[in-house]
Specification:
The complex is a heterodimer of chains A (604) and B (98). Helix content of chain A is 31%, strand content 23%. Chain A contains 13 helices and 22 strands. A seven-stranded antiparallel sheet of chain A has the order 2-1-5-4-3-6-7, sandwiched between helices. The longest helix of chain A has 29 residues. Chain A is globular, with a radius of gyration of 25 Å. In chain A, 59% of the residues are buried. Chain B has 98 residues and is mainly beta. Chain B has one domain. In chain B, a hairpin with a 2-residue loop joins strand 2 and strand 3. The chains are: A alpha+beta (604), B mainly beta (98). Strand 8 of chain A pairs antiparallel with strand 8 of chain B.
Chain lengths: 604, 98
Amino acid sequence: MDPITFSIIRHRLFRVVEEAVITLKHVSGSAITNEGHDLMVSLYRADGSLLMGGVGFLHHLTSAAEACKAIIRRFEGNINEGDVYLLNDPYTAALHTSDIYLIAPIHHEGVRVAWSACFVHVYDIGAMNPGGFAPDAADIFSEGFSSPGLKLVDRYELRQDIWDTLLNMVRSPEMVALDLRSMIACNNVARERFLALIGKYGVETVDGACRTLIEQSEMLLRQRLRELPDGRWQSRQYLDVKGEISKVVLTMTKEDDRLIFDFTGSSPQSRHSLNCTRWASLGGLFAPLFPLLCYDITWNEGVIRPITMIAPEGSIVNCTRPAPVSVATVGAIQSVNNAACSTIGKMLAASEKYADEVTAVWHANHFAIFMFGRNQKGGDAIGILTETFAGAGGARSFGDGVDIGGEIPNPISRMANVETMEASFPIRYLFRRRMKDSGGPGRFRGGTGGELAIVPHDSPDGGLHYVISGKGSAFPMSDGISGGMAGALNDYVWVHAPGETHNADRFAQSLETVPGEKQPISWGVYPLQGEDALYVRWNGGGGLGDPLEREPDAVLRDLREGTVSEAAGSEIYGVVVQSGAVDALATERRRREMRAARLAVAAQ
Amino acid sequence: MKQRISETLEFRGEIGNCRICCGKCGHALAPAGTSWKPLAVLSVVQVGQLPGASSAVHPGVVFRQFCCPGCGALLDCETALPDDPFLDDIVAAPTGSK
């Protein structure tokens, strides 16, 4: 095949995915999809292997491939043109029950030539708590509807009995229906555009280009791995739920053109729902691998071949049924993301060629806070605080992390406007802004996270409730690199002042000035009623390098912008500021003393 | 020869007999292919005492800071509970082929 045709087909395949994503967003009506971009669309070969990974949450690319293969195993011989299949069982392929895969075969002249697959986090899945995250679920049976594969559309005809059954098991069925329809529309567009591509170039040419794309990706990744030094790098993540500590431990070994991710040493599966299944862990380690090692390589089956994962059965990263997993995406999966990001970053740092592509860990602590209740219009409302998608960039080898700069596993993540949230829920934001001292200190600072506080507002029921599955308030998780420190922790505080009114303080601008008793929370269901307030802050990215080597003027800029406190400027960065300017001599002296103090430890 | 290990560490010496050294001052820490952290100066910082700590920070969690015994440069930092082992990163010793 001539290289120009090959290149055009490659780009057209990417555009197929892009257009399908646009369709998904246009049809879906929930903030988590439209605003948070908690979605994914990809194309797969006829055998279910990954052909063209799209944007969105990248840990779904490999899991949806396994979902395609599971559908093939279950329905082979009865897979027809115009079918759409649903799968959301975490022990088959999905990450958790709320992330429903809709998978559609693409046929050309009666022959299956590809699959399209997509997911959204549906509005509700009928779990014990609204929104799908069920922090107190004892097993998967309390985490809502779960299917290892069913046919939702049969030869272009919606199976009404299945449809009605699904919607009979969930809250706000009209919104879940919209989610499902958005995914059907998405798959329809992917099929039409893929067939248009075949119509223009012929099925054999397109098939040949797809085969070559996978071979090319494998060759390019193996080539890149051979350029990197051999070695072994480790990472460790702590998760705390109600005082029980679990660990995700990773040893990544690079040998020639292969990478082995070994999670031996990780904790046994938890009784809490932060566990993840094997397929989820595999997706979790690929989420940072795709953008960090394959930013210029097509994300497909070829990238998967050089990678091996070892995940002990019965551990927190490969739990066994019926362990609960509804919090997996913000629990063990994200820790697998973080650990893989850390070890890959260290490997890049060991290479002369790739030393300028090093990054510390980005936004490591998602939090799932789903509000539920009646909104100010009297309708039912369920929805996530989308600030969890706002993220924070890790420091890079060439500069600071981006403040509230998203995350690596989802290149298009973002948060909703305050006004969008206030229009959808009976709440009012007291403030939402960058969080001081949240970026991990280093020669290059991690990007800041943020903080917010909300109160009930204009609610017909005096307020609403929320389900919180929040980790990261006990242990920092956005690891730094090469001496850089981790980004600050998350924090979740329920402020309650029953029976009191403090109207004068209903515009408080800090947690300290919100009236009432302040109680740290992280797990369960809580009220946002009457005089309650909810304060949330999310982590910054990890730092890179020794904070004592940060340019003093950069620290001064941080002080002026309010992203670093005077205490941190002095005690961590060793910068002395006098009359609004850096005192260079005093700073040099202070830093010398701080280095000497480090060595004094050895003399003790 | 010099060959990079990280932002702060490098191999120095002859192929087959090089050592892990501080990238800033050249202080030799350990033979290539072995663990260097036990030979660095370790200072332990309580996470809960740093600016930015949360209201729920675990009382035992610390940052371990591994510093060069020669110049005090900060070589690496890891989050840990007291009983957990050092994270052990080992870059293969240079062979001259890469």
